[in-house]
Amino acid sequence: MHKTAVRSTIAVGMVFAAGIALAGCASASPSSSTAPTAAAGAVDLSGVCPATVTIQTDWNPEADHGHLYQLLGPNPVINADKKSVSGDLYASGKSTGVKVEIRSGGPAIGFSTVSSEMYKDKDITLGYVSTDEAVQLSASLPTTAVFAENDISPQMIMWDPATYPKVKTIKDLATALKDDGGVVRYFQGAAYMGYLQGSGILPEAQTDGAYDGTPAKFVTAKGKDGQQGFATAEPYIYQNEVSAWGKPVNFQLINDTGYPIYPEAMSVRSSELSTLSPCLKKLVPVLQQADVDYISKPAATNKLVTDLVTAFNNGWVYSEKVADFGVSQMKKLKIASNGSNAYVGDMDEARVQKVIDIDTPLFTASGSAPKTGLKAADLFTNEFLDTSIGF
Q1: Element counts in the chain: helices (H) and strands (E)
Q2: Which CATH number applies to 155-257?
Q3: For the chain, what are the domain ranges?
């Protein structure tokens, strides 16, 4: 199974108080089946969008998904059994007249791809589909991205700067690891690793696909090994919450090695793009504004994110401090940015085509060949974006 952005369920031996006590199917407030009404002067999605806009994510709640949780109005309903949260869909503090349901991915869906979930459950309106997943499954489970909330991926390779003080890049690290007998641990099947290995940046001999998501092997290697991670989480967690490590790590983004995917782009089933167009024309600008609002003022949403993590109670440990760090990294590293223009959420044709060109031979060799003749325009559209909304 291809898992581009598998997160690590780091066990750090800490319990974080989230301010709510929830078990089984519970809610932050009494549930209501009454249909919301669009507030005066608000964006009205009723009539053009589904009564409930259902969004499938690829992992547990975290700051990287904050723009989605920003959509929730007051008193969201938390379903701890299904690892989902729902409520009135709000835009800039006003009800849009429809509801939104946000579903967790990763362990909540058996680590299956979001694309496969979208085709199994047609109630899902939009799902997180990274560019390389869209390429790989373009022949069997075609999706079209309509909004890229992050301009670049936070996926990274990290290492100990005390052990490797001269290492600045992943390619430097590969040389150092060869000399030192170390490896980079990663989740087996990650498409980016096929690129790093095939391009010679990180030869296969210096890699180990047996990463289990815990810090144990990294810590016991005492700096000798590198490891995959996310720049929005692990640098803070390893320095501040993994007591057995307790010091900084250095890293390079996979994006900066020449693998420019759009992570977790919000996508629809390609066959439904036309049908959903009236909804997307109004909804996508709402998504853009939620992204901008969240990054600008994340505190309340970060509190909700960590409340959800506590309620879901599935082994994922995530504190408000990590969420705050995630937002700061998204700003600092320009993960959340306008890219090359003045608005948020668009995708660049040349970048998407580069991913197609890199991944097509990799996926073909592994037995999951992309659609014949696949081109960038098959995988995304910028037509629904409001060019006045940006950071």
Answers
A1: 11, 12
A2: 3.40.190
A3: 52-151+261-378, 155-257
